[in-house]
Amino acid sequence: AQTVTQSQPEMSVQEAETVTLSCTYDTSESDYYLFWYKQPPSRQMILVIRQEAYKQQNATENRFSVNFQKAAKSFSLKISDSQLGDAAMYFCAYFILDSNYQLIWGAGTKLIIKP
Amino acid sequence: EPEVTQTPSHQVTQMGQEVILRCVPISNHLYFYWYRQILGQKVEFLVSFYNNEISEKSEIFDDQFSVERPDGSNFTLKIRSTKLEDSAMYFCASSAGTGLGTQYFGPGTRLTVL
């Protein structure tokens, strides 16, 4: 079964600190893309970062970086220097290449930023 | 920066009525998707669309649902006879191609069925 597990329903972090959101997934395929999306209270879905499974190097995007462990099927998101605007739901998702490209989603982690 | 747009932002309808949700994907994208998110639940895939036909659809996408690309820019989702359980946020997404992969989402349409 293709599943995504986000084991932390809610996380809180002090402003300017670093926080890591966890994500594990299950697939027997080897070629896939992984994503983190952010959903603020407006409920818009905003792409944060993406990782191609064939790449060993972890993706980074400014204050956002991932720790991708393919063998462990783990894809955590690290947010450095947390800002109030980072407060949102964060969803981990992936799709398999050469398939129907539907994204498989986790249940989300609510990130609270304490001023 | 190009973006996916959706209208309306919020639609309220009576049970049994038809609704059409509209999306304008990013102009050079070829793959289009609809997802929905019931409040407090996971995002669920509904349908993908390529080359003017459905590529894949989920079990949720039954005969009450249909999609259309009526012209070169719009991509619509129609629900023929809405049910209370259709109340959700509906997201349209588009991607440039299979190898490029990243799906960019619109701001969503909140559908409320009374």
Structural commentary:
The complex is a heterodimer of chains A (115) and B (114). By secondary structure, chain A is mainly β. Chain A has a single domain (3-114), classed as Sandwich (Immunoglobulin-like). Chain A contains no helices and 12 strands. In chain A, strands 2, 5, 6, 10, 11 and 12 form a 6-stranded mixed β-sheet that branches. A 4-stranded antiparallel β-sheet of chain A has the order 3-9-8-7, with no helix packed on it. Chain A has a two-stranded antiparallel ribbon with strand order 1-4. Chain A is globular. With 114 residues, chain B is an all-beta fold. Chain B has one domain (5-95): Immunoglobulins (Immunoglobulin-like, Sandwich). Chain B contains no helices and 11 strands. Chain B has strands at 5-7, 10-13, 19-24, 31-37, 43-50, 53-57, 65-68, 75-79, 88-95, 104-105, 109-113. In chain B, a hairpin with a 2-residue loop joins β5 and β6 (53-57). The mean pLDDT of chain B is 92. Classes of the chains: A mainly beta (115), B mainly beta (114). Chain A binds chain B through residues 33, 35, 37, 42-47, 50, 91, 93, 95, 97-98, 100-108, and chain B through 31, 33, 35, 37, 41-45, 48, 55-56, 58, 89, 91, 93, 95, 98-99, 101-108, 110.
What helical percentage do the residues of chain A reach? under 10%
Number of helical stretches of at least 4 residues of chain B: 0
Radius of gyration of chain A: 14 Å
Shape of chain B: globular
User: Which superfamily, in CATH terms, is the homologous superfamily of chain B?
Assistant: Immunoglobulins
Distance between the termini of chain A: 40 Å
Structural class of chain A: mainly beta
Overall average residue pLDDT of chain B: 92
What is the oligomeric state here?
Answer: heterodimer
Rg over C-alpha atoms of chain B, rounded to the nearest angstrom: 13 Å
Distance between the termini of chain B: 37 Å
- Overall pLDDT of chain A: 93
Q: Which H/E pattern describes the elements of chain A?
A: EEEEEEEEEEEE
Estimate the strand proportion of chain B.
over 45%
- Biggest chain-to-chain interface with counts: A-B, 24 and 28 residues
CATH class of chain B: Mainly Beta
Tell me the structural class of chain B.
mainly beta
Q: Which fold name fills CATH's third level, the topology of chain B?
A: Immunoglobulin-like
Number of domains of chain A: 1
